[in-house]
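Q: Protein A?
A:
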Amino acid sequence: MIKHSEEFKQEAVRIALTSGLPRARVAADLGVGKSTLGKWLADYRPTDLVSGPQADLALENERLRLENRILKEERDIPKKGHAVLRQGTAMRFAFIDAWRHQWRLASLCRVMRVSERGYRSWRARPICQRRRTDMAVLAHIREQYSLSLGSYGRPRMTMELKEAGLDVGERRVGRLMRRNGIRPVRTRRHKVTTDSNHRLGVAANWLDGDFVAAAPNQKWAGDITYVWTAEGWLYLAVILDLHSRRVVGWAVSDRMKKDLAIRALDMAVRLRNPPDGCLFHSDRGSQYCAYDYQKKLQAYGLHPSMSGKGNCYDNASVETFFKSLKAELIWRQKWPTRRQAEAAIFQYINGFYNTRRRHSYLGGISPLAFEAKMA
């Protein structure tokens, strides 16, 4: 085994630090192994290459750099692990394991208030059956969270998992969602768009806040909302069957005129062919009070009903749909064109809301499943 002098080692370290060449190239040029050169670099101290006053300065700079790194770690680690500090040691060890490649192990253990020995013992310990089950359940939760467009909280998520064959309770699902930062989407404040400042005829409020229908095509409700795109506003008119909360008619336009509401009505009638006397409820907007729209209702045998003035709660079912649509789809991204927004709304209504989304009002099943169950 060849022994190298201290002068040779110092020169090798100097070349490796100042030449800018890869460590493998320097080791090959000097005729030493890459691991040997790495060991010399690991043992390197700033004072090894300088002497006199410069050695003291280099040593002080190294000390300040070390203190600065420690202070930065102690400032940044709590920002990431503030919530973890309130958890048990297993969660702290998991946090350390996830971040040990970014921060020093000693700093992580000190901030998390655990020992390095305890962390190493935790890593060597085999995973218990409960943790294995939690990991499997968490994988299903992440999948269903994605499929639900981030809309499911603990109750609906538990229903989804049970339907998938997992024997889990709400408390366990809630714990896993909370610890992994999986939260349902939050909504924004409602903005009123109804134009009731007109002299058109207004129907009485025959619905009177009773949103329950014993069978399909007994009570419908309609309204109009808006979606902002880079090309301007896109207006959406929908009609819901209050029996199942299913969207039975909808239409979009770049103008909020009566023809928008009429097209949604035409679609609903073609799809459901309602019997005479079906109640149609809306707000007092000019689109619904227009003569052409009222004439359509009469031709289809629908009985008009309108909300009280300025009372959005009289049409709460449709407002709830708009809230879900915007929170689960519209507010998630920017829409460059009206066509893109229209395609996304079509997919949301027909591919998710009507067919798969679990509704609390329906006992945790979708509108289509509810209609099939009640048929």
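Q: Protein B?
A:
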Amino acid sequence: MKRLFMQEVATRDGFQNEKTFIETEDKISLIDALSQCGYAKIEVTSFTSPKAIPALRDAEAVMAGIRRQPGVEYTVLVPNVRGAERALGCAINEANLVMSVSESHNRSNLRMTREQSFAQLREVIGVIGHGPVAINVSLSTVFGCPMQGDVPDDEVLGWVDRFAELGARGVTLCDTTGMAYPSQVQTLSQKVRERFPELQLTLHFHNTRGMALANTLGALQAGVDRFDASLGGLGGCPYAPGASGNVCMEDVAHMLELMGYDTGLDLNQILAASARLAGLIGHETPSQILKAGRRLDLHPVPEHVHTLSKQVSLTDLEKAQ
């Protein structure tokens, strides 16, 4: 049974997209619950400017309030040197840096050229140094850009190489707008693993076009063993309004469990945590397993099946189909 490492991103990637501000104590309580679920890593928050992302303006308070679980890494998004300085004061395990491999998307999303982003992130890596805090770089739009279209694999590999040379421990390949498809995922993942075997490789899928679970299978075929996912499927992208967000953690965990993979996760505890989300964010989530139950969550047999006291009409059969 192959060991996989599952990484929760809802409390950063998901919460930053919510219109309702989730109170600090509620964030802390949810993260504490997630810490008991068997995750390898939890992306807790973002040290971006509170003006830019007011939903995560309580980053320091959240990091100070959570109870750390041994064996779980607590990572945060760090956009610049100021963010790095704030994060380093909060005993983080990892700093997650972000830029797009698509020039047009990077300019649109970060208001910088790719070279400007790289220069800024190089400064961040310099501030963090080679101490106990690990560096992960999340590369957005590697499987396609909503403005540019396809991004050549060589461009993606080139950016991975530049960050590997700076000492990054890991790289995340992000399907930012849900444009990936399974054979593409398998091919690019294989190229990255073969060229950079020392890097901790993570795949990050969005379910914009309903392909996130299929893309997970493509990554598994390439030997990938680390995956981001979001409790309840929270998250989204401004270039796909109304679409689902990140791949739903409980849906992907359920699939992997059925296939015999060891995820280290307690799916019952994850479902209990996911059930809390609607009350926090004010709307339902895309989670299918939360709605339908696990595959073998069976229903009681109706009494008429035992007694044959109820005759089923043709109309009832048609409705059942």
